[in-house]
Amino acid sequence: MTVLYFPVLQQDELFYSWVARFGQHTAAFGHKALQEELFSDRNSSAVMDFPINLATFVEKISFIRPDLTVDRVIEQTSLWPYFRPFLPEERTEDLIASMRSGHGNDIHTRLGLAAGRVPEAPFVKVCPCCLKQQMSTKSEPYIQRLFQLPSVWVCPEHECHLVFSVLPFRPKNKHAFTPLSEVVDQPFRKTGFESFDIDKLLVLAKDSQQLLQGDYPVHPLAFWRDFYYEMLPEACRKGRASVDQKALHWHVESFWGKALLKKLGAGLEVESDNWLQKMLRKHRSAFHPLLHLLVFRALQKEANLSKLMQVEMIHFKSIERNISSAPEKKATTKAVEADQAEWLTLIEDNPLCSVTELRRKVPSLYARLYRFDRFWLQSHSPKQKRKGNHSEKRVDWRARDFRLARAVLKQIKRFLAKDVNRRVSGTFVLKELKMASVFEKNKLRFKLTQRVLQKYAETVEAYQMRRIDRVVAEMKSRGEKVKEWKIFREARLRDTISTQVKAFVQKKLDKY
To answer: Is residue 358 predicted with pLDDT exceeding 60?
Structure first.
């Protein structure tokens, strides 16, 4: 079914709000019908930040908006541009593919938001001044995407604090698009940022706005460590390549304020191995844009945000390292041949020395060879000798299997005798013996232990019957009449128990 009407997209409007206004304008018969009409899927999720099923949506409204593309929808109506510059290109492609399709369950996990330290707002944020302006000029309110960023708590245009509406950022009904007009008459609540320096919050909001609206390039993760290192003031450096973490900690904290950082979810309470230290190390994973903005602005108080996204080829140390590690042509000069001969002679004169020990003897010779022909050096160096007995026969697996099987059986009997308040499963017993990891990695070697576990470890049904025995005994000791509903409640049983357990319950009722 082709859509013949769709409202005009307002400036900086979220996709969620755009669709919600359409549903209100057309008086859609329920959210399921709206989903079917726009996405051909009655169970598509209505997500605030990263919408999905966009390919179907664009096709549905192509009759009235032939100029609209999926990329334009993502760029203009989602929070994606805010995150894009800090993610590797391959991850970017996967995330855009998820938004195009109807499978967006992995978006927040891929971005690191599900397990990230920066909290998202519990409710949709609005600016009272912008809201009043929308009502006077547009006759209806809409949700602005800038205000939904976790780094924006004031309006950069009106320089006033944002407030919480009663519309949840993650609504309980994940299939419904609720327009802001439905909740605009209900009282707003403060966000908790009113007591903080509004000038600092304005700086953060304006930087976030530039990031959201700008078309910035994507850099590899290796770019960022050296980029920030080049910005460090002399007071935050140690030597040529080290960072004075305490000085950097003080520098960032003194600029933003300890309380504000904590409120933003970027506190530096942990003195070692906090997020700030990791930002100045090799980036093994992407960092939240808020953390990038906090570091950049603390180090560059007056610089324009465009410097954060500069595209000039800067020869940072990481780039130089990559270049130096590239294979070079084998040098044939007499000087290099003389170095190679000297290195071979050194090995011959010191047959018991390792590469490290040889390198310490002639560091300059090693450096020259490494620079001119690293692969020749590796192939003409002593091979590392493994110490200790690494033979497969060094462990008597048959004896170990016997010992573990005996220990497992003893532990099972001990737990059952004590009537422990949990199922005596194989996993539980092995963890108590601190052998779970060894057993899992060498399961085929522990055949006897496997048989013992299969025969004696407590099954789910056996554990349920043990609980029933305990509950019935407690009822009798209290002088209560044994009733079926009491057994189910106190033994924490469900209606889906097996017929074996149901027969056991009936047996107890018949007995008492």
So the answer is: yes
Q: At which residue do the structure tokens 């966000």 appear?
A: 191
CB-based contact 294:262 (threshold 8 Å): no
Helical axes 289-299 vs 198-213, angle rounded to 10°: 120
**Could you count the other beta carbons within 10 Å of the beta carbon of residue 403?**
14
The amino acid at residue 436 is A
Q: Quote the tokens at residue 403.
A: 């010992």
- Residue 201: pLDDT over 90: yes
Query: pTM of the prediction?
Result: 0.61
DSSP 29: S
Task: Tell me the per-residue pLDDT of 3-39, one tens digit each, with 9 for 90 and over.
Answer: 889 999 999 999 999 999 999 999 877 888 898 899 9
Cβ contacts of 7 within 8 Å, gap of 6 or more? 18, 21, 22, 25
Q: One-letter amino acid identity for 330?
A: K
Contact 235, 244 (CB under 8 A): yes
Ranges of H-type helices in 355-396: 355-361, 363-372, 374-379
Residues 322, 56: Cα–Cα separation, whole Å: 43
DSSP 214-236: S-PPP--HHHHHHHHHHH--GGG
Amino acid at 225: R
Tens digit of each residue's pLDDT (9 = 90 or more) over 248-284: 999 999 999 999 999 999 988 766 668 898 888 888 7
- Structural contact between residues 152 and 213, judged by C-beta atoms closer than 8 angstroms: no
